[in-house]
Amino acid sequence: MVADRQKSDLLQGTLDVLILKVVALGPIHGYAIAQRLQQMSGAVLQVQQGSLYPALHRLEKRRWVRAEWAASETGREARFYSLTKLGRQQLGEQRANWDRLSAAISGILSAAE
Amino acid sequence: MVADRQKSDLLQGTLDVLILKVVALGPIHGYAIAQRLQQMSGAVLQVQQGSLYPALHRLEKRRWVRAEWAASETGREARFYSLTKLGRQQLGEQRANWDRLSAAISGILSAAE
DNA sequence: GGACGATACCTTGACAATCTACATATCAAC
DNA sequence: GTTGATATGTAGATTGTCAAGGTATCGTCC
């Protein structure tokens, strides 16, 4: 996941929860997930393919998502991912975790000098 | 940096900006930085020494912080870190980066289904 | 005197996630 | 027929963190 053109590489580990969230919005294939994240973030987030597919396989292995081949909007075959029950639970947990963490970090960064 | 007792390991790369921020509050030694982060975050963030010292050396190498030996509060010798001009600039940039990024992620995670 | 916990520094080895770059294939447009 | 978007995937390198260890000083408790 790249968050800046020049040089950024902030944030590791958040890709999973972002993917879970997008998949939770309805069955979707990998390529579209990346597009959706980019669009929803106002181009702040740009997921590289070399990050995306390993992440999807990771999530599938953990049974947080389920995959099946189906025809995409363009008529081509694509692997559609949907959230499992376990995945929905994970999404909840990790979302709470993100909230806690981002609040803690933001709090520190805005502390008065 | 550990954010959860059980299993967490969210967030990589944010340790640097957190350290820069704490150092910006005034010269401080490594051990105290870890304590301060833990305290300021309400125990959400716990920086391991194996993360802390490599990070400090990294920041020093990049000339974002400067280090010198001095006596700590307890009278013992310790390495006190202070922010350089470059470091102050970096802190500003990375803080802005964090704000952009966390806003983007939070926005996605709270999107309606 | 000796053990222990807190303070304070540090390194080593392994691991996990990401990035860059590459490879493949289909389809539409030109 | 070549380019660009769509769509999947892998390989190698890099990076940051973690777990685990080490050294040493200081105060306190027994």
Task: State the gist of this model.
The structure is a homodimer of 113-residue chains. The first copy, chain A, has 113 residues and is of the alpha+beta class.
Relevant terms:
DNA-binding, 4 helices, alpha+beta, 113 residues, three-stranded antiparallel beta sheet, 3 strands, 53% helix, homodimer
Give an account of the 3D structure.
Two copies of one chain form a homodimer. Chain A is an alpha+beta fold. Helix content of chain A is 53%, strand content 14%. Chain A contains four helices and three strands. Chain A has a three-stranded antiparallel sheet. In chain A, strand 2 and strand 3 form a beta hairpin. The longest helix of chain A is centred in the C-terminal third of the chain and has 25 residues. Chain A is globular. The termini of chain A are far apart. In chain A, 35% of the residues are buried. The model of chain A has no long low-confidence stretch (mean pLDDT 90). At the A-B interface, helix 1 and helix 4 of A face helix 1 and helix 4 of B. Chain A binds a DNA duplex (30 and 30 nucleotides) through helix 2, helix 3 and strand 3.
SSE order and pairing:
The structure is a homodimer of 113-residue chains.
Chain A: H1 14-24, E1 28-29, H2 30-40, H3 49-61, E2 65-71, E3 77-83, H4 85-109
Antiparallel strand pairs in A: 1-3, 2-3
Chain A binds a DNA duplex (30 and 30 nucleotides) through helix 2, helix 3 and strand 3.
Mean pLDDT of chain A: 90
Question: Largest sheet of chain A, described in full?
Answer: 3 strands, antiparallel
Give me the number of helical elements of chain A. 4
- Count of extended strands of chain A: 3
Q: Write the element-wise H/E pattern of chain A from the N-terminal end onward.
A: HEHHEEH
The Rg value of chain A, from CA coordinates, equals 15 Å
* 3D shape of chain A: globular
Strand line-up in the sheet with most strands of chain A:
1-3-2
Low-confidence stretches of chain A at least 5 residues in length (pLDDT < 50)? none
